[in-house]
Queue: 2 jobs
Job 1
Amino acid sequence: MAEISINQTNGHYTPRAALLALGVKMEQLGMFTPVIEKVQIQQKQVKDSPGEKLLDALVAILAGAHGLVESNKRVRSDPALQRAFGRKRCAEQSVISETLNAASEANVHEMHQAMQAIYQRHSQGYQHDYEQDWQLLDIDLSGQPCGKKAQFATKAYFAKQRNRRGRQLGRVLASWYQEVVVDRLYDGKTTLPVVLQDLITAAAGTLQLDEAKKQRTILRIDGHGGSRADVNWMLAEGYQIHTKEYSGPRAVKLAQSVTTWHEDPNIPGRQVGWVPTPAQEYVRPVRRIAVRTRKKNGHWGLVF
């Protein structure tokens, strides 16, 4: 009877097989390399470089950690997960926290540069064919409640959460591709008109928008960002704009000038109409549409 020998190989069990696949792909693409190269946190290296500890923090977030304290049980205890992302170990959670605390404002700008390089190298939005179709960018702020010790945490209004501290996350989205082109963190009281031009300028740098590309780019913005000064700035830059009227009373006055209303075929009780009043306050010609819906009492209510 022939002898059968079995070679046993030591392996590692992991409950995060899907995340391992992502880690292997990221490692193959060198996706985190720009962060390692560009973000230079001034900190003494003992076992792990600052860049490696930033990667450990990212893996912990991807593994579902709600705080860096969870990196010990989610990443440090999972050798298979570490290797999938190109790491042979994971720094202890307090050491990762020290690295983040050592980061300076200059490092934040370096991270912006790294994220820009990653987006340009791997995104669909950057490869968009402007001659074939419009580029659609959505710009807005999102309230992010947080603890009072967090950077930029301030008392402000957050939907359905009274007396909360938080921050505002400003984002520019390439909507056709569901990609984040730019994101920036602000204090909780920041409003869109204050940072709108900065967000658009940052997105233009990431997408490398020249004059021709700007003319084929639609900026879609909530009404709170549609002040006359902002609209004129965007028009002067060459963009196409889709936004709401910033002033409620002015919107009502403009709607009163509509002579013909048309039924919306998709929404019963809703009507739209062209505003005939010339838009002389803007630096380029614009077309304005008024929208109204029927209230429960039978009267018309203006949407924008």
Job 2
Amino acid sequence: MSLPYLIIQLFSRGQPKMKHFGFLALILVLPFLGCSPGQRMREIHWDSRHQSGLTAELATIVSAPKKDQYLSTSVFGQKVEHWQPTTGGFPIADSWVKVIRDARGGPQFIRAQVSEFEPSREDLDRARQLESRKQIILDKAWKSFAELRTAKKIFPARVILKQKMLRFEPQLEIVFFTQDDTDVVQLTLSGRGKLIERRSIAQHLTRGSGMVFLGVPERSNLTEVEFSDLVGDGTLNSSVLKVESEIANRAFSPTHEFRFSPTDKPFDEVQAYYYVERSLAWLKKEFGVTLPFQLGIKVHVGGLKPSNAAFYYKGNIRLGDGDNVTYRNIPRDPTVVVHEAAHALVEVLAGLPQDKEGGSLNEGYADFIAALFLDNPRMAEYSYLKGPFRRSLENDLVAGRDFKGGLYHDATIVGGTLWDLRNALGTQVAGKVAIGSLSKLGAGSQFKDFAPAIVSACENLGLDSTQTELLQSVLKKRGWL
């Protein structure tokens, strides 16, 4: 039990005698007052290969009955799970748990970030009060924030517990798609409805067919392809993938023959469906990975208004047409479309964030998965108009030395390293190393976790000495070791 926790509990119970020790208590906890959320959290690393059996604490963490934002999938015969812990039914902000289980359900690998101390009874009471007043706060927010009134979709609001100084403050999170579907916004409100933060966090089956470009449009001919496992409602909708359009002119065919000219707006739906459907089938065939949800794609976001939107959020991809200044025909660029789909895999396997170092890891892995599938290291090669490509995995940047803090710049170092592994080890092995390492990362992962995750994945795959030396050589050359 930590010192801050003891002090908090004593004061929260209102012991009169403790008031005389106010100054002493302040001195004792002063080192904790200026800590960041990460410093108030404790990281847990456990691997059955190197450590003894589960402690009581670890067993409690991995068997907790209440899990918020829970996701799981299977990789190489193992079950990968991650979730956000809760106390009293309320998620703890900045906390997360990642578990890999064997075929019998036994934990083999655990990474977690948990609070140093538990919310007090008073903290939970205030959270319950906010939960009971949630609709009142939402009604107030509806009147205060015009973008909520025009939002395309609003997800269920949730009460979270955020560490503030020596207590936990209940807050209300609201997430929504903006009116033109070009962004995902999260509003964090206090118990009184005051804005704390606003941030972007950008059947029956049948067969069908369609006309598509098999690769970059400028280097491909229109080709007829077959679509399997369609739901059968005349749209591009299957158990794993659904494509829609923001405009009224939709891709619809009662015979499921989606043959459109590139000058027709519905063509973009067909093209996006093809790229993502084939990349998901490739991930399943080559690496045994499937998504545990139906992936949704919407093209032509923004309607008739030019939009450069291209993002993924919680099972949803949004693609604009481009403004013909910076981007063009975004749904027809295979690297952009597959990159966004790859974020779904990153979310399921690792739960990496959208910003900071974890965000760069997220983007780097998404770039690499797209590049590996398409055999093309140049992202947005077709749609980007201000250069031959937006970014390339063929680079000589070095970790540490060349980090600049830019989300996508630093991501190219991650993606470039993985691309070098592909060149050294081949597509199949590099893909397994990348996906295996993803399963070792979590919501709080940073650059320091990248190389250990790669090495751990290498050990799990049982690479021979030559392959291991090549892998270590790449990591050293790129500045990770």
